[in-house]
Every structure is written in C-alpha cells, then in structure tokens.
Amino acid sequence: MNAASDVSGPSANLPLVRSVPASQPFTWISKGWDDLLHHRGASLAYGALVSILGGMILMYQRHPFFLAAAISGFMLIGPIMAAGLCELSRRRTRGKLSNFNTSLKTLRIHRRSLTRFATTLLLCSIGWFLLSSMLLYAAFGSVGPRLEDTVWGDVLRTLTLAQFLAYLLIGGILSCVVFALSVVTVPMIVDRNADAVTAMRTSLRVSLVADLPAMIVWGTLCVILVAIGFMTYMVGMVVVFPLLGHATWYAYLDLVE
User: Fold this and answer.
1) What are the CA-CA distances from residue 46 to residues 79, 88, 174, 197, 239 (Å)?
2) Residue 84: phi, psi to the nearest 5?
3) Predicted confidence (pLDDT) per residue in 30-84, tens digit
4) Domain residue extents for the chain
5) Quick one: which H or E segment has residue 18?
6) Rounded to an integer, what is the distance from CA 235 to the centroid of its chain?
7) Residue 197 to residue 199: CA distance in whole angstroms
C-alpha cells in the first residue's frame, strides 16, 4: 500500500482516509485483473448479467425517455452487482474460499444499505433527466423529438445539436456526482456493514478532500474502460464490469483506514 499520508475528517463518525499516489489506480486495476482470473466463473457471471442490462441502453435509439429508463435501471442494479464482486475480493484477501453462491450472501446481509445507495443513484439519474428536460423545454419548447417521430428511427438523427449537448453536459455532471458518491461506498458497506449515508460521506471525502489527483486518474480509467464496453456493444462489459468491481475493493483498502 502506497499511502502518502493520513487525512482525518471533521466528523468522528467517519473513518480516516488516506492519500495515495496518482499512479495507484493502475495497481488497483492490476489487482482487480488478478481477482477476475482467480474467480473467473463468478466474475464473468456478474459481467454477463450487467452486460445484458446494459444492452438495453444500446436500444435507446427510439427516444430519450427510453434512455432515461434504461440508465435508471442500471443505476439501481449496478451497485448491487458490484457488491458481489467486492465480496469475492474481500474473501480472497482474507484467505477464505468463495464462489458465486457465497458472494450472493452479501446481497442479502447488506440488502438495506445497498438498496439505499442504489436508490440514491436512481434519484440522481432521474434528476439528470428532469433537469435536462426542464432546460430544453425552457430554451426550445420541447424536451426532445416527438415519440411518433422516433418509433422507426434513430433518436440521434432527430435530436437537435443543442438538445444532444444539453443531455451530454448534464449527464457528465451527473457522472461526476455518481463517481464521487461511489468510490468506496459499496466495499465499505460490504466490509464494515456501514450504513449507506456514512459510506457515501466517506466516499465524498476521499474524492474531494483526500485524493483528487488519484481520483482524476481513477475516473479517467473507469470512463475509458466503460467506453470500451459500450463500443463493443456490451460484449466487452462482460470483462470490464467485474474488473472494475474487483479493483474498487483494492481502492477501498488503500483509501480508507
């Protein structure tokens, strides 16, 4: 562990968080890959489940309403699937045997906190769509193409450039918020049985106070890998999602005291 320093928080209820070198995310990816190979069957099973769900997002061409619904569903299911991957890595670092079935137990044990976290991300995605819609309606009198105009066509061909950029800009802001809330939240819930609020507050502190340079690198790596997953029509996500899930566990070990 290459922690540079400890950073204490103003709240006694939060654990200490540590600073790490900006290059540390590459170590997390390396360790995550090793875990993926060690738990190949279970890891790829989680990746396949998420890939199927993500495939729905690639079917959004008909209208932004469908895109919003698909992303909302992903926000709700994604953290729960990541918890199973973190449990696989947790058990391996503790020298315990694990498989897909044992990893599922953590979903039941930490169901309440995971659900609250997932609901928070769901509300973020709904907020993204509502804010985009309000801005577009105020500026252009429409939130997007009419449903009847996109039944047989590609929404990207019917969205105006201004509408597309508005969705993209506000979606980017949403992504930054979700990332800051998520850096160590799921592994902290799995490892310490932390409540969702405490885990998210710790994640925000890691992102905004302790490790902004490392978080920029980590976020960039996540964006690149997820982009590869989508560019391969979700086939690549079968590997990308479990890789990031396992790597998140090692990020948590390095960042939280």
Assistant:
1) 11, 11, 25, 25, 9
2) -65, -40
3) 999 999 999 999 999 999 988 887 776 666 555 555 565 556 566 667 788 899 9
4) 19-255
5) strand 17-19
6) 18
7) 5
Q: Residue 209 belongs to what H/E stretch?
A: none
Residue 7 in 3-state DSSP? strand
CB atoms within 10 A of CB 52: 12
The residue written with tokens 């997953």 in the block is 229
**Cβ count within 10 A of residue 226:** 17
Q: Hey, what are 151's tokens?
A: 């039944």
Report H helices in the chain.
24-38, 40-57, 64-93, 100-109, 111-140, 155-158, 161-182, 185-192, 196-205, 212-231, 237-255
Q: Give pLDDT tens digits for 209-229.
A: 777 899 999 999 998 998 898
Global pTM value: 0.82
User: Which candidate, 213, 124, 204, 215, places its Cα nearest to that of 172?
Assistant: 124
